[in-house]
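for the writeup, i need someone to sanity check this before i put it in the appendix. the sequnce is what the collaborator sent (i think, or maybe the updated version? ugh). structure was predicted straight from it, no edits. if anything looks off just tell me and ill rerun, i have time this weekend
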Amino acid sequence: MRPVLRTILASLVATALVVPAAGSAHARTREGPDAVLAWNAVATSATVAACFSPGADGNPIAESRLFAMTQVAVHDALNGIRHRYQPYAARLSAWSKAAPDAAIAAAAHGVLVPGLAELSTFLPASCIDAGTAVVEEAYTAALAAIPDGRAKAAGVGVGRQAAAAIRELRAHDGSDTLLQDTGYPQGTEPGAYHFTPGTPFAFAPGWADVTPFVLRDGAQYRPGPPYPVTSRRYAADVAEVQRLGGDGVTTPSDRTAEQTEIALFWVGSVPAQWNGIARTVTRQRNLDPWQAARLFGLVNLAVADGYIATFDTKYHYNFWRPVTAIRLADTDGNPATTADPNWTPLVTTPPVPEYDSGHSVTAAAAAAVLTGLLGRVAFAACSGTVPDGSRCDDAHPVVRLYTSFAQASRENQLSRIYVGFHFRDAVDTGGIHGTKIGELTLSTSLRPS
């Protein structure tokens, strides 16, 4: 990177993502885009406290749904005060002088609190209580900062209506599907999905049937199949992950120090990471509340549908993970692959089929939306999944610099090879898949009135 450009990008570090610590409300809202940003940060803080993220063992599919519903409610509430963009769940009408910050707070609160409570089937009560406490603390502080009166009451009223509308719309969307299916059939043929080491179940195979937010169905842009296990391209992909994706302890790895940093930087939650990026660039561009709410709404609609679409693809093809493929390479019928029965990835592999890469789909979807809205933007980002001492809320975080959303998305995609989760075919295909979803979301949803 040219020194001048690096200097410019370094000046953006102060606006890099900082995921609020669990229990920290960060919700001193005021009229303006700060309220939209603050409540997006509260949603992130609440999901961290509720044990969703930021690690690879979280629940990004439910997290993405909760983010999408929250940001739709915020968008619709603001547009109930002043109609600038088409609503998503309901066209509301509020007093034109209603307090926008009260509407934002009530909309977010009205989705997050009941949304967290609905997740008691897989989250411990202590996690739900912690996440709810973050939201309640933020809500109390936000309303206390707004003078009592008709404007505040009207803002709270339209926010509650917006939250109720999206909750009603999504009440029977299929998201109550079984998350840990221990009876999911494992394949017997080469290339067929097996449970991954340490996780004797398939995660959420029914998520493929969840009602999308924008897509017609999860299969709308389903890509063609992965490379045949007997092909040269497949063998090349296996060799690449086998060489780069090992843990460096049980399994040697040729990863560079930067590739290891990239692998860990992006290993966590796509909703948390890309909402943080969205906050950073929203601050840089000084968007007004309506523009900011639309941006967050579109990003999260695209990410949520990206997960539905990638789960459709994953469970349609049921392709085995690299950890399985490498350990069983002597059974695949391909003389160009070499088995290593002890091969271990850098991070424990998630319990879902390999193709296509979910991180690649959802990151590309978010990047397509952000690029369509803002164009080419330079920004800085940090991570909650790098080693202790270098995370976002540490004194000296690792900060990575990007010249565009596409560059960040591509790095996010390649990280899945470095971490040992995916073949390059799944990464490349996922990027194309996600871009289509992001572009469709931007062209059809929350359009200017």
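Confidence is low (pLDDT under 50) at residues 1-32. The CA atoms of residues 167 and 349 lie 33 Å apart.
thx in advance!!
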